[in-house]
Amino acid sequence: MNQAGHRHRALWVFIILFFSPVAGLAQNVQPYNESSQQDMDDRAAAERDPYEDWNRKVYRFNEVIDDWFLRPVAKTYRTFMPPVADRAVTNFFNNLTEIRNLANSLLQLKPESAVVATGRFTYNTIFGLGGLFDVATAFDLPERPEDFGQTLGYWGVGSGPYLMLPFMGPSNPRDFGGFMTDNLLLPSFWDLAEEPEVYAARVLQVVDKRADLIPAEGFISGDEYIFVRNAYLQRRAYLINDGRTTNDPFASDDDEDLMLEDF
Predict the structure, then answer these.
(1) Cβ 124 vs Cβ 87: under 8 Å
(2) Residues 202-207: what's their mean pLDDT?
(3) Burial class of residue 239 (count of CB atoms within 10 Å of its CB; 0-12, 13-18, 19+)
(4) 164 - beta bridge partners?
(5) Assigned domain for 60 exists
(6) What is the DSSP string of 104-122?
(7) Are 102 and 144 in contact (CB under 8 A)?
(8) What are phi and psi of 217, to 5 degrees?
(9) Considering the domain boundaries, does residue 169 fall inside one?
(10) Is the CB of residue 136 less than 8 Å from the CB of residue 101?
């Protein structure tokens, strides 16, 4: 596998993880039975990914963006940013997502998750110096990611076909609508900052996330597009079902087990 291939594959791992952590994802992966799996995969792909030709073109476009811009910037950031500061930046942005987690927990009628999100935001903001330190996890309050795409799924809205979006990566109509709602309509602390500061913070958030994925660049193998699609669909099913999974016809590659467990 060449170095460029590693770079491109890491971009899509980054996209998959951007708004939700990977913990527990390996539980979704089912054993692979090659003799009966191929036909099932072909049928499932035709149903879930009817625009595969177009999606692959968008995937290649996004690879170019990563190759020429995102990864070089992230690599430079990783080189000069002290590890403690890098972790603090990650914690800060993760803490802000608790506002989203709280809102969507309430919309999904999950009071326990809402309490956890409130507790995490309170502890990390007050005792974690504005979210720079994740003290909530030490207090046995791990994150419970919830977004509006999950909320729509909770209330029975179908996902629609798989879509590869320019710059944004894997999605579907339901998750894209949820993304837009979470990031444009729900009030957040971003509203308290002036526009230039918001743009700078968003860029820092993307670069920080991409830099954190550089060590994971060699985990994806085989057809990159299929691997990313399968991992994304599995991850979203895992989140929407709160960890309750069924056999997934896309879970057909033993290599996925290795990558997901390493995360």
Answers:
(1) no
(2) 90
(3) buried
(4) 170
(5) yes
(6) HHHHTT-HHHHHHHHHHHH
(7) no
(8) -65, -20
(9) yes
(10) no
75 lies in which domain range? 3-81+143-262
In this structure, is residue 86 part of a structural domain? Answer: no
pLDDT at 11: 47
Q: Does a structural domain hold residue 136?
A: no
pTM: 0.74
Query: Is the predicted pLDDT of residue 109 greater than 60, yes or no?
Result: yes
Domain count, the chain: 1
On the question of pLDDT at 8 being above 60, the answer is no
Do 136 and 124 contact (CB within 8 A), yes or no?
A: yes
- Report the alpha-carbon distance of residue 59 to residue 234 in Å, rounded: 19
Q: What does DSSP assign to residue 191?
A: G
Question: Do 212 and 21 contact (CB within 8 A), yes or no?
Answer: no
Q: If 0-12 CB within 10 Å is exposed, 13-18 middle and 19+ buried, where does residue 81 land?
A: middle
